Amino acid sequence: MNCRDISGMAPLYFTGELEHAQAAAFSEHLRKCPDCRQELAEQSAFDERFRAAILDEPVDEAALDQRIRDIIHAAPQNPHRWKQFIAGIAAVLVFGFVAYFALRFVRPNPVALAAARDHRIEIVDRQPRKWLSDRAAIEALAATQELAPSVLSALTPAGYRLAQARLCYLDGQVFLHLVYESSPGTVSLYLRRVDTSASSRVRLDTFAAEHVAGFQHGRLVAVLVTDQPDGVSRLAQSAASSL
Amino acid sequence: MPSSQAEFESVALCHTRSLLRVARRLTSSPSSAEDLVQDCLLLAWKNFGQFRPGTNARAWLFRILFNAFYASGRRLARAPVFLIPGPAIGDARTFSPSFDQTVDVLRALDSLPVDHRTVLLLGVVEGFTCGEISQILSVPVGTVMSRLAGARGAMRARLAVPAQLTGKDA
């Protein structure tokens, strides 16, 4: 280490930031070099007198300090804004999570909704359609949908008679629409044979005046629609248990 | 009083005097210095949530102070006055008998470029290390060291008197 190095590293020497090895070499040079010793001593004396001179200058911060306190107290700002930000993000995530499941599980079943609309249009409003009312013709139509006559018999609600049938589309899928009549009213039963076998509990929905109950048993999907709120569940349970 | 206010007052407002002392050497008038420190402290209050308890609050506040100062486009800056003619650097080891007079030191300091004033105040008066000054001013440590050496030399030159007046060899 030479005198030039000492001059260059002097700022780190004064602030105590020299690493151990550097400090040792620095001290060793100072021990041997009177010029550098004198220079650093004078610089140190200068720093001390400079610091004292600056600190001697009167500074009255009281008024400013009070003004800052008044501003902070008068219009407090939440210094933990990042916590609010995190809380906001969490709230959005929770809302999204709930909304997702609400839409996923609570939104109307499209087939049930289509069945209710079809029942309203075809049965309640009696749109002029071509229906099959002959039992043999209905069974032949059912056979085209892989639905055996025994299924039709089993699903006939107690006290009802099969009045008519036709094919229709519900949510883009072909269903056999069977209409059963009795003195309390009319029931629509929509049937479709599907590829995947499964079993589900009866699910109930209400759309305006139409009460809908749907279930899957094996490869058979059945949807009942009626305007009798108390009867649809019982009819569906009876139909499901008869299969 | 919300605990955050009390916490801020204990962490930050105890440094108002230091901030004001430095701001007065940066700006053109006492009122400009107070405006700068007020801006600094209100910014600190606004962003107090980012401050990590236990870390160097003084360095954090000075960093905000200088950010505010430079953000002002130095419109608040004190113009160098050069009230004291600086002798040749070779005479810098010999100090004026009146060196300890505050007014001479302040006038000499004000005659320095603001970058040199800044490192002298932070390093010599406020006691920050070169590493801390580097973080406060967002400049490399080597730059801080260079500015410190230059500022010390310039101050000693401005406060020196010709060698013949002291009877010492230059």
Summarize the structure.
By secondary structure, chain A is of the alpha+beta class.
Proportion in helices of chain B: 55-70%
Give the amount of beta strand of chain A, in percent.
15-25%
Quick check: average pLDDT of chain A? Answer: 85
* Tally of separate domains of chain B: 2
Strand arrangement within the widest β-sheet of chain A reads 1-2-3-5-4
SSE arrangement of chain B, N to C: HHHHHHHHH
- CATH architectural grouping of the largest domain in chain B: Orthogonal Bundle
Oligomer: heterodimer
Q: Helix count of chain A, per DSSP?
A: 9
Largest sheet of chain A: 5 strands, antiparallel
Category by helix and strand content of chain B: mainly alpha
Order of helices and strands of chain A: HHHHHHHHEEEEEH
By CATH, the superfamily of the largest domain in chain A comes out as MucB/RseB, C-terminal domain
CATH topology of the largest domain in chain B: Arc Repressor Mutant, subunit A
CATH architecture of the largest domain in chain A: 2-Layer Sandwich
Low-pLDDT runs of 5+ residues of chain A are: none
- Cα separation of the termini of chain B: 62 Å
Radius of gyration of chain B: 18 Å
Task: Describe the 3D structure.
The complex is a heterodimer of chains A (243) and B (170). Chain A has 243 residues and is of the alpha+beta class. Chain A has helices spanning 3-14, 20-32, 34-56, 62-74, 81-106, 110-124, 135-143, 149-155, 231-242, and strands spanning 161-170, 173-181, 186-199, 203-207, 210-226. In chain A, helix 2 crosses helix 3. The radius of gyration of chain A is 44 Å and the shape is rod-shaped. Chain A starts with a helix and ends with a helix. Mean pLDDT of chain B is 79; it is low at 80-100 and 162-170. With 170 residues, chain B is an all-alpha fold. In chain B, helix 2 (16-26) packs across helix 3. The chains are: A alpha+beta (243), B mainly alpha (170). Chains A and B meet through helix 1, helix 3, helix 4 and helix 5 of A and helix 1, helix 2, helix 3, helix 5 and helix 6 of B.
